[in-house]
Specification:
heterodimer; A: alpha/beta; 6 helices; 5 strands; 20% strand; globular; B: alpha+beta; 3-stranded antiparallel β-sheet
């Protein structure tokens, strides 16, 4: 089974880097799992996400999210829930994961069959600058645990 | 008070608002309100070692990182009096081909075409015309693959450095791209033909076009700054002729000429000023299109992008076939204090950088003039031309019309922003 683990985020936009940091931490803590999957990080994948999904049976996408919830809250959006999940943007430059998947599902069978799970970390500081807020940094342990559980659903 | 407010101008890169003030049925004020500045990057760069600069400036934009990298390395090489080899220059042009291909394919088919064809978004277009959008994504992917082969990844490639490249990319990896590039070249030619069939709104503007010009190649990274008014300015003198100023409603600076006029950078400017330097296939596409140059309709920048697509596919194939690196991938740098400026053509227009460095190669000063900042006053001026029509429209139609015009510029309100709101307000009596 081909599995993609993808961390998304801009490294110089505060909590937006949470997805990148989570994937790096998970790789360090779970090297045996990391060796069995395809690991990618990307600052702004946009439509390149569709290329990354080619040949994959499942994907775990880790990204920062912005919502009214408290910073550090971790959410899981499963494959069957992603259809109703949007980031509210119509921009193709910065298309969100959900919109890109919708487009891919319309056009490509490999996207339609790929089981994509989004793990979102609620951030609070997206200003220009490096470093996560304390709440998001604290949540990293939970994020990594959730990633490992999700990945093991496919590996075991 | 008459107010029209629209929640989002989609499919532009950036966040801001569009305000139109109306008094006695006359438009009295138009502002593109830009809230969030990309300019903090200039502050970021101060105190950094010069080799960090290309990888930091690349983060300014996910769509045109190569332009940010190249303008910065050219400027920093100038500050050190470093000349790069012809092989390095050729590979840099190949990176540009990749960037322009992926950006133009995206803009033509997924950003602007839905407007011209009457669809709310690329998703709707994909539902109606899946093969069209699939072809667009395939064309775009080829550009991404070129960047990945050279820079290790398609978004924010990392191989470029001051003096050249950290390592030469594998020739086999580049050669493997040629079949897809050949396909892309034919698809680009068809894109030009298709672009001529689209229903463009009537709008002719007497622009001052400004672009990099080189007599022997399609201006991208070297040459002078040419204006359609007849001025030719060296890169070193760019800041003597083109200024930026702060305006109250925008955190992005506004560019203007030394005479206070607006000017236009981007594909229309490049095509109008540099079409004699297009490669043969692009020349043929242009000739077959029977266009009357200069193109002055901002919506028809789509056609200019399509012709450029042909040119950049064609050039990419040529560059890969000629790729036989046998010299060092980068020049040896001898650090010294200095100052240098450099520019390149991002897909959406001219991008200028200037740096001062100290004797240890640390950045003491950085200045970045992005294309969209130069075009913002021009976009506002175009909207003024359109405004009498806009204020007579219902809110939805006015919004779509204004959005369409703004999108035709492919503005990158520089990764700092996400949306635009349109607000039309009757300011009435004071």
């Amino acid at each position: 089974m081909n599995i993609l683990v993808l961390g998304i985020g801009q490294s110089l936009r505060g909590d937006d880097a949470a997805g990148l940091e989570a994937v790096r931490m998970w790789q360090a803590l779970h090297p045996e799992s990391a060796a069995q999957v395809n690991v990618e990080t990307s600052e702004l994948p946009g439509l390149v996400l569709l290329d990354l999904l080619e040949g994959m049976d499942a994907a775990i996408v880790v990204d920062a999210v912005r919502s009214s919830a408290n910073a550090g809250i971790v959410i899981r959006v499963g494959p069957d829930e992603l259809a109703s999940f949007t980031s509210g943007t119509g921009s193709v430059h910065g298309w969100g994961v959900a919109e890109t998947l919708h487009l891919g599902q319309l056009l490509y069978p490999w996207v339609a069959k790929c089981r994509v799970t989004l793990i979102g970390i609620n951030g609070k500081n997206f200003a220009i600058g490096a470093g996560l807020s304390p709440e998001v940094q604290t949540a990293m342990v939970d994020v990594v645990d959730m990633m490992e559980r999700e990945i093991n659903k496919y590996l075991l | 008070m008459k107010t029209i407010e629209v929640p989002a101008l989609a499919r532009v890169e950036g966040e801001g608002g569009l305000y139109i003030g109306v008094k006695d049925d006359q438009v009295v004020e138009i502002r593109l309100d830009i809230y969030e500045p990309p300019r903090f990057f200039e502050g970021f760069l101060v105190g950094r070692f010069l080799q960090e600069v290309p990888d930091i400036t690349a983060r300014i934009c996910g769509i045109c990182p190569v332009a940010y990298q190249m303008s910065s390395v050219i400027a920093l090489e100038k500050s050190l009096d470093v000349e790069v080899s012809a092989q390095v220059y050729a590979l840099r042009r190949l990176m540009y081909c990749g960037e322009h291909i992926e950006s133009h394919a995206l803009h033509i088919y997924l950003l602007q075409a839905p407007d011209l064809l009457g669809y709310p978004s690329a998703l709707d277009l994909a539902a109606i015309a899946p093969e069209l959008v699939k072809n667009a994504l395939r064309m775009k992917k080829i550009g991404n693959d070129v960047l990945k082969a050279i820079g290790g990844r398609s978004v924010h490639p990392v191989n470029a450095c001051v003096g050249g490249f950290y390592r030469w990319p594998d020739a086999a990896s580049l050669n493997a791209l040629i079949p897809e590039l050949d396909w892309g070249l034919e698809a680009a030619k068809q894109t030009v033909q298709w672009s001529l069939t689209l229903p463009y709104p009537d709008l002719e503007i007497d622009y001052e076009f400004v672009a990099i010009h080189h007599p022997e190649e399609y201006g991208v990274m070297r040459g002078d700054v040419l204006s359609s008014k007849g001025y030719k300015t060296s890169v070193a003198d760019y800041e003597m002729r083109y200024f930026e100023e702060h305006v109250q409603h925008s955190n992005a600076l506004h560019g203007h000429t030394a005479f206070g006029g607006t000017y236009l950078v981007g594909p229309l400017a490049r095509l109008n000023l540099n079409h004699p330097q297009l490669l043969p296939a692009a020349q043929k596409s242009l000739k077959d299109a029977k266009l009357n140059l200069p193109l002055k309709n901002p919506y028809k920048s789509l056609i200019a992008r399509a012709v450029e697509l042909v040119n950049f596919y064609e050039e990419a194939i040529q560059l890969i076939k000629a790729y036989h690196p046998d010299q060092p991938a980068h020049a040896n740098l001898k650090l010294k204090a200095g100052e240098g400026c450099g520019m390149s053509e991002a897909p959406r227009g001219l991008l200028y950088h200037r740096y001062k460095i100290d004797e240890q190669g640390m950045v003491k000063f950085a200045r970045i003039v992005p294309p969209t900042a130069q075009n913002l006053p021009r976009i506002e001026a175009d909207l003024f031309v359109l405004a009498p029509t806009l204020v007579k429209m219902e809110q939805e139609q006015a919004t779509l019309t204004a959005e369409h015009l703004v999108r035709s510029y492919d503005p990158c309100i520089s990764c700092a922003t996400h949306f635009l709101k349109l607000k039309v307000e009757d300011v009435g009596q004071a």
